[in-house]
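Figure caption, in words: inputs first, then the predicted bound structure.
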Amino acid sequence: MEQAASASSDAQTQSQRKIIHCDCDCFYASIEMRDNQALVGRPIAVGGSPDRRGVVATCNYEAREFGIHSAMASATARRLCPDLIIIRPDMEKYRRASEQIHTVFQRYTDLIEPLSLDEAFLDVSDCPDFGGSATRIATAIRKEVHELVGITISAGIAPNKFLAKIASDWNKPNGQFVVLPEQVSEFVAELPVKKLHGVGKVTAKKMQRLRLFTCGDLRQLSEDQLHAHFGSFGERLHQLSRGIDLRPVSTDRIRKSVSVENTFDADLPDLASCKAALVELLPKLAKRLAKVEDYVIKKQFVKLKFNDFVITTVEMLSPETDVENFLTLCEQGFSRGDRPVRLLGVGVRVEPLETELDHSGAQLPLALSSSEEQESES
Ligand code: DCP
Ligand code: MG
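Bound structure (magnesium ion present):
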């Protein structure tokens, strides 16, 4: 057994990190149950119609008892559970819930790596709240998400992403699980190889033939032996089977836009008042942009929510935050509703600097695009 010897400098580095993996419970289904209490306690799925060869995007835990799961044909799901209620997805609603959940995350850290609408890694190593206890931070996040969004979320707390992700599944739904640095070796030893990222059906079969069932079994092999069996993946297996994962929480993917917005106590009655309010928002936007490193601006946009909650966003390609452009966008947005405005936002779409260097010097044509959506506030 050589695993104890692997308290290498790598393992020591990672033991100082505190990573939380948050994952909402049956996300789309939870949102639908939140919005229609009559669905609570009954088996429901969100997905396409069985008559149109639709598939299940997700289902609640009641439906899971019948063997229904994501990606299953809706027709099969209905056969397994004739009482199954199938609801059409409302992506806009799920996106809005996801944004709200992120506002909770942002209270604790800027280091957030979203994996999907309902899932993210948070690095809370430097968060001073609750005396720096990641366990208590996770509890607070789960409570706040429940209060703000009305759904439950599970969390895994560990010294790295690999373990945090596994841990968030351990006490699902509406639970959390902690792997303390000193528990890593024991926790991973018992873990089935199938739980390792990158071990699919084929690799799992091969491992079974080699009588490698758990990470503890993998640890019996040297790095060279793992390399001989699994090629370049061998090195990763050597690390993962010891609970080592040095991948940082990467925020790159979230930096898609920077914006500020304001909901006004009294609706802005006309275009002139919108323009005046917009100009007042610009210093705030500049302040927020000053905190973002290594980005280039790709677009400017203006968002308006009218007094009937219809939202419209107007954007244009632009490499800067030009005031005249914002005012033009505001005019265009306002003309789509021509009625009082309750919320106004200004922002820019950004990309990391490296992307820009790839095509530096390219002239950006001026173009306009837009989107309009109906918001049903609850
Ligand atoms: N989703 C989808 N198609 C899939 C898998 C998922 O459309 N094949 C959608 C619906 C889910 C959401 O993504 O609600 C999140 O996916 P998860 O894998 O986290 O599953 P759930 O949140 O639904 O359930 P769990 O409680 O297991 O996390
Ligand atoms: Mg989920």
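Residues 15-178 form a domain with the Alpha-Beta Plaits fold (CATH 3.30.70.270).
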